[in-house]
Write a structure and sequence with these properties.
The complex is a heterodimer of chains A (about 300) and B (about 350).
Chain A (H helix, E strand, L loop, with lengths): L1 H17 L9 E4 L5 E4 L6 E3 L2 H9 L6 E5 L13 E2 L7 H6 L4 E4 L6 H9 L3 E4 L5 H14 L3 H21 L5 E6 L8 E3 L4 H8 L2 E3 L7 E3 L2 H7 L3 E4 L10 H6 L8 H4 L3 E3 L2 H5 L5 H18 L1
Parallel strand pairs in A: 3-4, 3-6, 4-5, 6-7, 8-10, 8-12, 12-13
Antiparallel strand pairs in A: 1-2, 9-11
Helix pairs in contact in A: 1-5, 1-6, 5-6, 6-12, 7-12
Chain B lengths: L7 H20 L7 H12 L9 H33 L12 H14 L10 H25 L5 H26 L3 H9 L7 H20 L1 H9 L1 H6 L4 H23 L5 H13 L3 H25 L8 H23 L1
The chains are: A alpha/beta (about 300), B mainly alpha (about 350).
Chain lengths: ~300, ~350
């Protein structure tokens, strides 16, 4: 089966990238996701992670105690909040990071610039770029972080667990030709949806669904009338609920003109955990399981 | 002799152009609905009959029509404000966006979202009230600062202060976002502005505001003409300068505040269309103000049409389109003006 051979290939790729962590004496050499080589004498014990996903991976690998600083948006698991927060993104504060005396800074170049990477390297801090854009590269990021912290075995296990979870979902779902529309922001702020090359798209495919906006690349603001015309079978919203007014799901149901959509009529609207489904970390498996259960439950009712 | 006021047929022509633009914008969109279907949906709705089956009814009546109404009303309101301020300040570059009034309104709205200012049982009223209040306060502050700097309120000093105030307002917004935590996402989306959420309730509020404030501003046409020659001239022909100024500024703040809280900051509409209208009907405010309203509505409708259809199914923010056209015209007007001076 194609899917199986793909996952075997992936596993091989991970093993290969993990083998970059050569047991060359006590040294560790890794190649990060921008193809840069980084060498450490021993597993890192002081790490600053700027992205929420990297924090989650570190903690899930049992290396949460190495975290001496985190980006401002890192909030899961709760234990990471104990680490001091540093500015991330365009306002990444090199001084703040240097003051924490990390051996390694984990960051991506989507929110940070290469200039910032250079500034940190000039200060003698090793910068490792982790930049997962699809599930396959999340595995790579996990392998990379595992190698850095001397948790290769744990990383291998985590990847295997994720793969097993995804494989199980894929095996149990069949493509019944149903479509799903992902709503990233509510109507009031303009409808943003996730098109192809997003985690949401990958997860939808696993659950046997077709993304209604597969013709959009990445995230984009789409026309409301397109949603009405494409009449999706399922709607998944990742809008956060602040505890006031209608919930995102109720709000979608109450929109004028949406009452005749298949998803609204059959109550097939799912409020997904926005962090689970959009962060390139281990919780993507939870997000996939949640969507699978929602879609599966629907199928059982019919 | 040239008539001072519009003849009925001039109004007729403008209304026809506006009606044509609205019809075009209802018929064209990201999803193509045959024009015949569109018209029958509209006709059925007018006769109170249910729309024919299919999605075209929902698309036309729930998405396009309210949006077209909102866009036309916002365009008319912003353009009228621009024309009135340009006349009042004798400044061809005056507009809600160049004077920083729109940024002030956004600041008010963002504060309302961040601190949860709301009026029970009236959704969005808190945001609107704060946007209007801040539009007015920022307009007063900008004029006061400009007056301190230069009593004649000259073109460049007032624009300079407007730009500085815009920057100040956006940094305060960034500051609030930094402290807002969880609500951050809704604020960031809000500052980007969007007309996707348009509905009939918004259109009704906009229409009422435009009806009242528009009437107030149009009644000041004669006074604005007197201001065009100079404030002293206005005073000497018996215009109650202070009262007229305050009336117009309040009306402008209300219109900009409501427009911003519905559609976000839409730049350059109020700047560009009064100039286009001036080229068509001349500088007399009795003609210029109504002509600005019509052309503002048509301009924004067409800009929104481009934004909705150019890269379908993706929607471009309307501000992108208006700023693109507007900034070019801004430069042309600025240079023309400089050469004259």
């Amino acid at each position: 089966m194609l899917r199986k051979s793909v996952s075997i290939l992936l596993l091989l790729a991970i093993l290969l990238s993990a083998s970059f962590a050569l047991a060359d004496g006590a040294g560790i050499t890794v190649t990060d996701m921008k193809g840069r080589e980084i060498t450490l004498d021993k597993p890192a014990t002081r790490i600053v992670a700027l992205t929420a996903a990297d924090c989650e991976i570190l903690c899930a690998l049992g290396a949460g105690d190495t975290l001496v600083g985190r980006g401002t948006y890192c909030d899961y698991p709760e234990s990471v909040l104990e680490a001091p927060a540093v500015d991330s993104g365009a306002g990444t504060n090199v001084e703040q990071i240097i003051a924490l005396e990390p051996q390694v800074v984990l960051m991506n170049t989507m929110a940070q610039t290469l200039e910032q990477v250079e500034a940190l390297e000039n200060a003698g801090i090793k910068v490792v770029v982790s930049e997962a854009t699809d599930i396959a590269s999340v595995y790579e990021a996990i392998g990379l972080i595992g190698a850095l912290t001397g948790k290769n075995a744990e990383a291998g296990e985590m990847v295997a667990e994720m793969q097993a979870a995804f494989a199980e979902i894929t095996a149990n779902s069949e493509n019944a030709g149903k479509t799903v529309y992902f709503e990233v922001s509510p109507l009031q702020w303009g409808l943003w949806s996730a098109g192809k090359n997003t985690f949401m798209d990958e997860i939808a495919t696993m659950c046997g669904l077709t993304n209604a906006f597969a013709d959009v690349d990445g995230w984009g603001e789409i026309s409301e009338e397109q949603v009405l015309a494409r009449d999706p079978d399922y709607i998944v919203t990742i809008t956060m609920y602040y505890g006031e007014g209608p919930t995102p799901v109720e709000e979608i149901k109450s929109r004028a003109g949406w009452e005749n959509l298949k998803a609204v009529k059959s109550d097939a609207i799912f409020g997904a955990d926005s962090n689970e489904i959009s962060r390139p970390g281990p919780r993507l498996a939870d997000a996939a399981r949640a969507l699978y259960e929602f879609v599966g439950g629907e199928a059982a009712d019919n | 002799m040239k008539s001072e006021r519009f003849r009925w047929y001039t109004y007729g022509l403008f209304s026809l152009a506006l009606f044509g633009a609205m019809l075009l914008c209802v018929c064209a969109g990201s999803v193509s609905v045959p024009a015949g279907d569109t018209l029958s949906v509209l006709w059925n709705a007018l006769c109170g009959k249910p729309s024919p089956d299919g999605i075209s009814g929902a698309i036309i009546l729930s998405v396009r029509l309210p949006r077209v109404f909102c866009v036309a009303l916002i365009g008319a309101a912003l353009s009228l404000c621009g024309a009135a301020m340009q006349g009042l300040l004798r400044n061809p570059l005056a507009d809600g966006s160049t004077l920083g009034v729109s940024s002030g309104a956004s600041l008010g709205a963002v504060m309302a979202i961040a601190f949860g200012v709301s009026i029970p049982s009236l959704p969005y009223a808190g945001t609107m009230a704060m946007a209007m209040l801040f539009a007015f306060l920022s307009l007063m502050l900008i004029l006061f600062l400009a007056y301190l700097l230069d009593k004649s309120l000259s073109t460049s000093s007032i624009i300079l202060i407007g730009v500085i105030f815009s920057m100040f307002a956006s940094s305060v917004i960034s500051l609030i976002i930094a402290f807002a935590g969880e609500k951050l996402k809704s604020i960031t989306f809000w500052t980007m502005g969007s007309l996707s959420g348009s509905n009939y309730a918004y259109a009704l509020i906009l229409a009422l505001a435009l009806l009242i404030c528009g009437a107030v501003i149009l009644r000041c046409s004669q006074e604005l003409n007197a201001f065009a020659v100079g404030e002293d001239n206005a005073r000497s022909v018996g215009v109650p300068v202070r009262r007229v100024k305050l009336t117009i500024l309040i009306a402008v703040s209300v219109l900009i505040g409501i427009s911003v809280s519905v559609g976000g900051t839409i730049g350059f509409v109020g700047l560009v269309t009064p100039h286009i209208a001036r080229m068509i009907v001349g500088p007399n405010h009795k003609k210029l103000l109504p002509a600005s309203m019509f052309s503002g509505a048509v301009f924004l409708l067409l800009a929104d049409l481009v934004g909705r259809t150019l890269v379908s199914p993706i929607e471009l923010p309307i501000g992108v389109v208006t700023s693109l056209v507007g900034s070019v015209i801004f430069v042309i007007v600025f240079y023309k003006n400089r050469r004259k001076g």
